[in-house]
Amino acid sequence: MAIEERLIVRLFKYFIHGLLFSLVFVTLSMSGLSVFFYTGITIIAGLIFYGFINSLITSRLWKIPMKSDYWSFFEHGFILIWPLAGINLFLALIFYPILNIWTTILMFFLQCFPRGFVCKLIAQRYEEDNNIDISKIPKYD
After folding, report:
1. pLDDT at residue 2 above 90?
2. What pTM, to 2 d.p., does this model score?
């Protein structure tokens, strides 16, 4: 980013990014789509959808122009799903012994910061003008 944002604004944006993505994730899980998520074409469609949603949120919230082709969305969703599952697993292991409605709500909101950070970090790889020439990257031995 050209202009350095204040820390509080960045934290708020990470929270909003994670919250929006969490709401989509929970909505799809509750709608029964998760039952069919593990069948061939639906896996591909789901990953494309997750990549698309994160690209949309990133472009609107962070003002980062994103690639908009199906392969980028698929790759984006595929890479995104693993760290998000890790965040869910980590928090579930911490809060499982005291699982009730309040810890579930707390866990939902606690996930927003790391999810927002991870979603933005992965989305930056799919910027529209991200033409990095690998041969020009210095090698460290």
Report:
1. no
2. 0.74
Q: What is the DSSP string of 17-33?
A: HHHHHHHHHHHHHHTTH
- Enter the tokens of residue 120: 């933005």
String of DSSP letters for 23-80? HHHHHHHHTTHHHHTTSHHHHHHHHHHHHHHHHHHHHHHS---B--SHHHHHHHHHHH
Contacts of 53 (CB under 8 A, 6+ apart): 21, 24
128, two tokens: 């529209």
> How far is residue 1's CA from residue 107's CA, in Å, rounded to a whole number?
31
Q: How many domains does the chain have?
A: 1
Residue 97 belongs to a domain: yes
Encoded tokens for 58: 């990133």
Angle at 48 between CA 45 and CA 54, to 5 degrees: 140
